[in-house]
Specification:
CATH topology of the largest domain: Rossmann fold
Pfam family, one: Methyltransf_24
CATH superfamily of the largest domain: Vaccinia Virus protein VP39
InterPro entries: SAM-dependent_MTases_sf
Number of helices: 10
Distance between the termini: 55 Å
Protein name: Class I SAM-dependent methyltransferase
Order of helices and strands: EHEEEHEHEEHHEHEHEEHEHHEE
Structural class: alpha/beta
Strand content: 15-25%
Length: 329
């Protein structure tokens, strides 16, 4: 890489990924053609406009980080500005070979109780059935009483936990933030729908980046992090949670350690978790082999998990669907 600092042309989600990839200390500015972004800071990096870029470009390396790659490249070429292009296929690196897998089937096999998951929709944006089952199984097996969830969407997961835990707290965005998502799916806004009116569920609405968790006056023994899935969001939520919890007692689960379709490890999420934590926690973080979850397991509970993945074993699960409920707004 050149010794010159970088200007990322495209102050978008792709630009934020590129900022992580190139390391913040190597990036001088964002640049964008959107006048509403000029002058603001994005992840503490100032965004400049194209006119400013024309003045200073010779001192920097320009990288396009935008879906409008063709238009921006023509704009730069017209002004004789050399550039590179950041491709989204570039993965944020984390040495995944160092990440131990939990044998999920073996964990369920050793549970001496049934799992009942009520009112699952299987709607896009939710978790998989083995994610919900894993959360409820942990709560039952380790007698968890105080459950904290970051990012509740429609409220399916916290509903599954509310029948096991005494107290549940949800930190989630205002429901209207989901208007566009549900509109694009031709649905009314079902945000928080399944956790409304549950007596042992307290809802706190807002951006977890702006909330002081310590002011909530809640000391969880079980946490599920499933909020903002960007690097910055996962980093923020992880760091705040581990500043709050008793790490010798509290179990923490992250969603989206894997990609939903391919089950490949989502290295951006994993890197954010490991970057956020002190070294003493890292040896107790694992990934499940057959759902989308990562987990922090306190030392005293490690004996209940198997890390032996046997190629000659295949676990299966017995399910019954009792009824389908039509939920209306």
């Amino acid at each position: 890489m050149s010794d010159k600092k970088i200007i990322l042309f495209g102050a978008s989600e792709l630009g934020k990924k590129a900022l992580i990839y190139f390391n913040k200390e190597n990036v001088a500015f964002f640049c964008d053609n959107d006048i509403n972004k000029i002058g603001i800071k994005i992840n503490d990096i100032e965004c400049i406009g194209f006119n400013k870029l024309l003045e200073i470009h010779k001192n920097y390396k320009i990288i396009i980080t935008s879906m409008y790659e063709k238009e921006i490249s023509e704009q730069l070429e017209k002004n004789n500005i050399n550039y590179g292009i950041y491709k989204e296929s570039i993965e944020i690196y984390y040495p995944i070979e160092d990440l131990l897998e939990i044998n999920l089937g073996h964990f369920f096999y050793k549970c001496d109780f049934n799992i009942k998951l009520d009112k699952l929709t299987f709607f896009q944006g939710g978790s998989t059935i083995l994610d919900y089952a894993f959360l409820q199984a942990i709560a039952k097996k380790f007698k968890r009483k105080k459950y904290l969830e970051i990012g509740s969407f429609m409220g399916e997961s916290i509903k599954c936990l509310s029948v096991v835990c005494d107290e549940c707290v949800s930190i989630s965005l205002e429901d209207q933030e989901l208007d566009q998502f549900f509109f694009s799916k031709h649905k009314s806004n079902f945000g928080s729908y399944f956790m409304n009116n549950i007596c042992n569920v307290k809802q706190i609405k807002g951006d977890s980046k702006k909330i002081n968790f310590k002011e909530i006056s809640f000391e969880p023994d079980f946490v599920f992090i499933d909020g903002d899935h960007s690097y910055e969001g996962v980093f923020n939520d992880t760091q705040k949670i581990f500043d709050l919890i008793d790490y010798n007692e509290t179990i923490v689960v992250w969603h989206d350690f894997r990609k939903a379709i391919t089950k490949e490890i989502r290295t951006e999420t994993v890197k954010a978790v490991f970057d956020a934590l002190d070294e003493k926690y890292k040896k107790n973080i694992f990934i499940c082999d057959n759902n989308l979850c990562g987990i922090y397991v306190p030392e005293k509970y490690l004996k209940y998990f198997s890390f032996n993945i046997n190629s000659n074993e295949m676990y299966s699960y017995e399910f019954e669907m009792h009824k389908v409920i039509k939920n209306l707004i």
